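Hi team,

Below is the intake form for CsoR family transcriptional regulator from Lachnospira eligens. Please confirm the fields before the structure is written into the shared record.

FORM ID: S-0412
PROTEIN: CsoR family transcriptional regulator
ORGANISM: Lachnospira eligens
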Amino acid sequence: MEKECCCHKTKERDAKEYKDLCNRLSRIEGQIRGIKGMVEKDAYCIDILNQVSAAQSALNSFTKVLLDNHIKSCVVRDIKEGKDDTVEELVKTIGKFMR
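The structure came back. Fields below:
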């Protein structure tokens, strides 16, 4: 359920969604720490780039899951409630990822 708090919107996620998103972010965080460690240890550029590619792929996967959840919950609910500005917000957000 979405709540308005000051000027920021929030969303309460069920336990499964919350755990899945947090687990994905923890893995990505670990990958980024690993990349930093590789740079600090003067690892070969291609090896670092391969790890960066893996981290980007994991972040893209996180984004897809979050976007899917958003469309199926927040966007559907808002459209049913007549809040058509949510569609424009979604279009702008998707546009940011397509740059």
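SUMMARY LINE: The radius of gyration is 17 Å.

Thanks, M.
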